[in-house]
Amino acid sequence: MGAILEIKHVSKFFGGLAANADVSFEMAEGMIMGLIGPNGAGKTTLFNCITGYYPPSRGEVLFKGMRMNGLEPNRVCRLGMARTWQKVRPLAKMSVLDNVMVGALCRTNSLTIAREMALEQLRVVRMESKADFLAGGLPIGERKKLEVARVLATKPELLLLDEVMGGLNPAESEEIIQLILDIRKRGVTQMVIEHDMKAIMRISDRIVVLNSGEKLAEGSPEEIVTNQAVIDAYLGSEH
Ligand SMILES: Nc1ncnc2c1ncn2[C@@H]1O[C@H](COP(=O)(O)OP(=O)(O)OP(=O)(O)O)[C@@H](O)[C@H]1O
């Protein structure tokens, strides 16, 4: 299988700060890539560069061989790439179903079809019984699942998940882990930012570690947990 995503020498500067510094790696189709590193390492910035939200200062991002630099989010979505946001902000005064329909409308102009697509994704995240609830009233665990349903409704080939387990209890995190593994079975490639090391080790095929904007290491979960530079910079000896 070929690379679905190629990140080539990507740097992103904010004034004098290199939030990403010469980061390169590739993702094969169908894999789950974990993206880890200390706070401020540049993980979310890299998501922003990949999804076209920020143009990289240097380097390029190729998705299915296409250059993504500076593309509008709507176009990125139609090409088959979707992301979640760390701080989930559903359209609070709209129903759960309508929130997911907003995602589906990136693929169709028909409200009837969008409704069907949205219901299908609500079933995937097991929230079909909440379809008519107001999104603003949901607890955090369900807001996170709603966010996943919304991006799935855009029918992505590549999904970027930014700390979807953040703030969840162990049972809710487990549900998200199963959901991510389910999504992989459907053939969707995923990049996952997560601070929960046990979770990231379980779900990732490969892991990239960022530190101070640079790629510190890349490898299988086993290679990453035994990498001395990663232990020193991030994991600490307890891992
Ligand atoms: N829009 C911006 N303007 C200026 N500096 C920024 C901006 N976005 C991020 N940064 C800085 O870039 C660095 C990397 O931030 P980023 O949010 O990408 O890290 P992160 O690895 O996602 O961190 P966390 O795990 O805390 O979410 C930080 O020093 C941050 O303050």
What does this molecule look like?
It is a single chain. The chain has 239 residues and is α/β, with parallel strands linked by helices. It has a domain of 130 residues: Rossmann fold, CATH 3.40.50.300. Helices cover 36% and strands 26% of the residues. It is built from 9 helices and 10 strands. It has a 6-stranded mixed sheet with strand order 6-7-8-3-9-10, sandwiched between helices. Strands 2-1-4-5 form a 4-stranded antiparallel sheet, covered by helices on one side. Helix 4 crosses helix 5. The longest helix has 16 residues. It is globular. It starts with a strand and ends with a helix. Bound molecules: adenosine-5'-triphosphate.
Describe, in short, the structure shown:
Pfam families: ABC_tran, BCA_ABC_TP_C. By secondary structure, the protein is α/β, with parallel strands linked by helices.
Q: Percent of residues in beta strands?
A: 25-35%
CATH topology of the domain at 1-72 and 159-165 and 189-239: Rossmann fold
Distance between the termini: 33 Å
Q: Using the 3D structure, state the CATH architecture of the domain at 1-72 and 159-165 and 189-239.
A: 3-Layer(aba) Sandwich
Helix-strand topology string: EEEHEEHEHHHEHEHEEHH
Overall mean pLDDT stands at 92
What is the overall shape? globular
CATH domain class name of the domain at 1-72 and 159-165 and 189-239: Alpha Beta
**The CATH superfamily title of the domain at 1-72 and 159-165 and 189-239:** P-loop containing nucleotide triphosphate hydrolases
Helical stretch count? 9
The main sheet comes to: 6 strands, mixed
Bound molecules: adenosine-5'-triphosphate
Radius of gyration: 18 Å
Q: How helix-rich are the residues, as a percent range?
A: 25-40%
Strand order of the largest sheet: 6-7-8-3-9-10
- Let me know the number of strands: 10
Domain ABC transporter: 5-237
InterPro entries: AAA+_ATPase (IPR003593), ABC_AA/LPS_Transport (IPR051120), ABC_transporter-like_ATP-bd (IPR003439), BCA_ABC_TP_C (IPR032823), P-loop_NTPase (IPR027417)
GO biological process, one term: L-valine import across plasma membrane
Organism: Geobacter pickeringii
